[in-house]
## 1
Amino acid sequence: MTEPTAGRRTGRGFGRVLVTVYGILAFAALGRSSYELVVKFGEAPVAYTLSTLAAAVYVVATFALAIGTPAWRVTAWITVGIEAVGVVTIGALSLADPDVFGESTVWSGFGQGYGYVPLVLPFVGLWWLWRTSRSTSEERTA
């Protein structure tokens, strides 16, 4: 089995910055959701479960993007895709009815509580996955 080329590795170059941002967001979301689950779960179980889901997605996406092997790339596509759908769906629902989940989640208001990073990050991640897979295809034809 050969080592993937530098162009294919999602955790190199700009990917290092992306992985760092994912890691910071994973850490923040995991801390928030852990606190909410332990201390406040009974107040808004749906919101706090969604925050925990977001944290799990960020943790897995961070590792998947950092490792970047073919199997982890598939995992990255799935988790970053879930993240994109989640932040858009939860964001839209929370704007339509601010009390829909009882409390805010990581993805409420399109990630407003996190400076809208949760809204931008999955689309940057999907672009990076596409870009790095495209460079691999170009290398094969060269």
## 2
Amino acid sequence: MISGVGQAGFSGIQAGMEGLRQNAAEIAGARREDGSSVRDIAAPLVEQKENLRQVEASAKVFKASDEALKSLIDIMA
């Protein structure tokens, strides 16, 4: 069960990082060389914040799982 929670945290980190990569690409591609805007970047900026929060929350889940596993090993030893 603990390893499943750790895996869920790791998967959340991966998904959030992929979302951040996509947001960054979308933001970077929104401008022309002359500086004029091709499209609105408000949505990818908001999504970037959401993806960042997902990575942070998933990292906390992963850390908690790791600490629980360490405690379990200490109890068993």
## 3
Amino acid sequence: MAFASIFRRILNGSSTPSLTVRSQFASIRLNSTVTTLTAPKLFISGLNRNTSDENLYKAFAPFGRLLEAKVIVDRGSGRSKGFAFVTYESVEEAEKAREGMNAKYLDGWVIFVDPANPREAQPRLPPRQDNIQSTEPGFTSNKTVGWTGR
């Protein structure tokens, strides 16, 4: 029922987020995050696709000395993927930022701030051998075209 009223408010053009909507988002997300920070790096999700590194930096700068504020973009299209990472000098500053910015609005969207998980090492695969020429006469397969005659 609460979702319907929020949706109705959005459709009616209410541009200012009400306190009840903000508190509903906060209660949903704050109750689920009980983990403590062990590193000064934060994961920011729910970002507007138009949020830039500069806007992110400005939003998180009041909580401490930022080392990095990076919006993650798609390599092919160059568009934001909707999440970012923010790194502070100390864990205490990161904790203040997490408490201050979790379930808040940034560029019109509600963002969520969580501890960043350390990156897992990806296993190295052997190099692909696509360019091996067949010594047998006849038809060969070609991944881009389908098949070719020799």
## 4
Amino acid sequence: MGSDFEAKPIASSTAAASSGYGLATAPVADLDPPPQQPVVKKGRTNTPWTAKEEQTLKQMRDAGNSWSEIAKTFPHRTEGSVKKHWYKDMHYAEFGEDESAALLAAIKEYDANKWKVIGTKVGKPAKACESYAKEHFGGKL
């Protein structure tokens, strides 16, 4: 039994793609993405804030600058970390006269190293209490 169909060899993959036999493939070099510069991201630094940075942050925030404008001043900190520091550690750092007196009494009642307990008693974050106390009561502690 003979067949009328005769297989013909294909000379190249280009011929296979153009003839409809097989899959069309591009050369590997054409599939590689163009070289790109590495993206520099601001990562987690866990770097403590300096007094100068906090002063700059406070001045800019008091002047009404947006968070994005403020964050540009701190190239190694993200906008989120700047906002978090403000609201968690600095925003509550302004104490009224009664809060100031309560804080000083709590410091005397508890050990100066118990900022978490002191903050709970006064109703302020521990870091804010510690910063305020050191700035305003430094010689009285």
